[in-house]
Amino acid sequence: MKLETDEDRKEAAKANKKPSFFQSLFGSLFSSSSPEADKKRKLKQIGKNYLKCKYHTFYKPASSEVLPPFAKFFYEIYKIISPAQILFKSNPNTAAFKSQIINYCMSDHQIELLSHFEEQKIKEVARQISIDKISAQIEEELNQFSNEFDNERAGKTENIYKAFTLFKDFCSFDFYVLLRKFSSKIQENNFSQPPVFEKINAEYIVDDLKDFVTVAYLITDDSIEWNSFFTYLKETRGNETVSAGTWKKIVAKLKSIQASGAFDLMIKHISQNPGYTTEIHHNYETIIEPYIDKLQEETMSYIATIANAQKASKANSLCEQIFESLQIQEMKNYTTAYNSVFEKKDLDLFMYSEPLGYLKTFIIEFVKKDVREFFDVVVVRGAWDTSLAAPMSNAYQELLKTSDAITKFDDLLAEDGGLGIKIKTLLPKTAHDPGAENIINRVISDSNEQAKKFLIESTQNLIQIGKTLKQLIEDYLKSKPVLVQNWKELERFIDHPMKEFSVNIYKKIYLFVQLMQQYLKD
Q: What's the whole-model pTM score?
């Protein structure tokens, strides 16, 4: 150890001697007060403070050079986290890790319930029980599934996912690019030969260092449950990817650096910005609630799809029985083809085009033919109480009016129709005029209401005709009819056997009512 001489003591005394009052006064009067000079003084002091910290070997303030020990520090971390980097590069889909973490934290009962929400499973069950029962059952099971994520289970899940995101962000930092600035011979994820690092101009790495501290300082949070996270890794992947013990050493080292302020001082000095502050933000997103919301949405969507498929299948079957080879009278303007235009504009849609076409066809092909023939013979010529015949007569007359009303309604939506002109004029304006969008949606909504009204009222009228027709068939089959006294006479006015003719009409009406109910029961 070097002994202190008298000369050294004299120099120290001079350095420690306080300036006199006048020296201080003149110093303050003539010292520069410019911002630039103030900045230089602060930067000089930052450099001195840095040299006093524990990690002063990382950086040389006098020449603004980053030294090999800095690179070696990052290289040692790079070696440790390299397997995790490879893992995340080969599995970039964070959603897969989210699902894995949630499944890992589920109870056995939740895992069992989860299988009930699969589309194929719902389809299998739908072959045995009604879709309404399935919907109620699934809704109850979804509630059970959600409720089992109590505070403890949900907390464990969220904590593991938080640790995962911080771990992933840290390991995803590009250590290789940073280290290549110190050694051009370094190879990515190859640690067989330790590289020789050179000192470099600090300006080359200041942005990298800024990025690094934003992820590094996040993992030093004492509230992070690293043990649970590494247990999850080991149990789901068969290994920890990065040793839990080694990881904790990295965290401890970074805590020490953070506490020393070494990196913050380096950034301030290198960037020549004494006021620079490292801002740390972690926008952590919870995963339980979004997962459950998505699960419920997807599962109910499966049920809706199956219900629609069943509905379409039943509707097709009913159509085949009702219309056989007849051509359906489709709407000309109130059509699903128009919906493609509306969808592009994010507008509402025509909802009842298909059933309205069925209704119009049924009225034209059956009501105006078979029902009319039966009506003209039995209702007009039949000897029975007019008060009993009135409901059927009124329903029949309303159906005949409906056919013309549907045509007029459809014509209004033609390009030269009152409503069609309004839609055509306003469609180009919807992109920049919310008012135009609202008006078109109102036209569509009113059109849907009118179409639905046609369907409901016509179905009610057909039900009324069907009820009366059923009574008449039963009366005809009696040895002594009660309602109609002259059945034998009426048979002379129909070219078909009365029983078969009446029963066929009733069957057609019954099937058509069922068809309409497929579209109206919602």
A: 0.68
